[in-house]
TrEMBL record:
Protein name per its UniProtKB record: Two-component system response regulator
UniProt domain EAL: residue ranges: 24-277
An example molecular function term from Gene Ontology annotations: cyclic-guanylate-specific phosphodiesterase activity
Residue window of the full protein shown: 442 to 725 of 725
Keyword annotations from UniProtKB, A to Z: Phosphoprotein
The keyword Phosphoprotein appears for this protein: yes
Organism: Parazoarcus communis SWub3 = DSM 12120
GO biological process, one term: phosphorelay signal transduction system
Length: 284
């Protein structure tokens, strides 16, 4: 294979790159059709209160059931959907589906469950993002506080779309807002005043390090921040009992992770609501 040096244009004819390029085009085309072909599915992962020994919430996590490639995770296709301008339609579908599921669970007697869903930066560039959410919540007759929108620190730092004002409007409408992956994005404490969120989700990279004795400066600091600002705290990525026990000792009661459950389809998630989580909860 001939490779000319110094000229980027010739790299285009690198057979391997060409394959990537064609795969990417195929992915884009498939993605454009995925909504109308009903290939998206919401998985749900429970958020558990150790103290209360019960499921207090569910996070909706998007999956794409591709007809030939099998199931594709959001980390692969969400960035593509953002680039090709499809994320708005996808987010709308996610919102509709998540509210519908929460209403179904309410009708089944689980009336104080919270539903969390992830928004992408692009969603906040919509002028009507707050109306889009409140309209859906009202149509399903859900208490707005039971819907939680997860945003990331990077969205708070690039505030060109007026994210702070939109977060404030969401909170004024009674909605809950969480900062996802908290602690990873260099956000200053001042952001917590500018963005009146209700919940912090401790990133799983911090939880991963929690194996030894129950001292950990980062978790202790985040716990203090949550207490000081009056915010709810959730730890994500809890995989081992020692991590859960340490988190609890440090003052974080609500957690989410493979220790309790992997994200799963609605039917499985409903089964979890009907039984106490299958875990030997440690004594306080
Ligand atoms: P995230 O919101 O931080 O979600 C947590 C991710 O960690 C999920 O990956 C979840 O499956 C995974 N996870 C949960 N427990 C554990 C654990 O104990 N250990 C480990 N190693 N991982 C765990 P998933 O479902 O692949 O989602 C990846 C990311 O994609 C999400 O991160 C979120 O940022 C984004 N995403 C998911 N669904 C949507 C959606 O509907 N819309 C948008 N815009 N983004 C979404
Ligand atoms: Mg999330
Ligand atoms: Mg997260
Ligand atoms: Mg994450």
């Amino acid at each position: 294979q001939v490779k000319r040096s110094g000229k980027n244009a010739f790299r285009f004819f690198d057979p391997e790159l060409n394959t990537h390029y064609r795969e990417r085009i195929t992915l884009e085309n498939d993605l454009r059709l995925a909504l109308e072909r009903s290939e998206f599915e919401l998985y749900y992962q429970p958020q558990i209160s150790l103290k209360g020994k019960r499921v207090v919430g569910m996070e909706a996590l998007l999956r794409w059931n591709h007809p030939t490639h099998g199931q594709i995770g959001p980390a692969t296709f969400i960035p593509v959907a953002e680039e090709i301008g499809m994320i708005g339609d996808i987010s709308h579908w996610v919102l509709e589906r998540a509210c519908g599921q929460l209403a179904q669970w309410r009708d089944a007697g689980f009336s104080d469950l919270r539903m969390s869903l992830n928004l992408s930066p692009h969603d906040f560039s919509r002028k009507d993002v707050v109306e889009m959410v409140t309209e859906c919540v009202e149509r399903h007759r859900l208490p707005s506080s039971q819907l939680e929108l997860e945003i990331t620190e990077s969205m708070m730092m690039q505030d060109s779309a007026g994210v702070a004002a939109k977060v404030r409007a969401m909170r004024d409408a009674g909605l809950s807002v969480a900062i996802d992956d908290f602690g990873t994005g260099y956000s200053a404490l001042a952001y917590l005043q500018k963005f009146p969120v209700s919940t912090l989700k401790i990133d799983r990279s911090f939880v991963r390090d929690l194996d030894g004795p129950s001292t950990n400066p980062i978790i202790s600091a985040i716990t203090g921040i949550a207490r000081g600002f009056g915010l709810q705290l959730i730890a994500e990525g809890v995989e081992r009992m020692e991590q859960a026990e340490t988190l609890r000792a440090l003052g974080c009661d609500i957690m989410q992770g493979y220790l309790f459950a992997h994200p799963a389809p609605a039917e499985q998630a409903t089964a979890w609501l009907n039984v106490a989580p299958e875990i030997d909860f440690a004594a306080p």
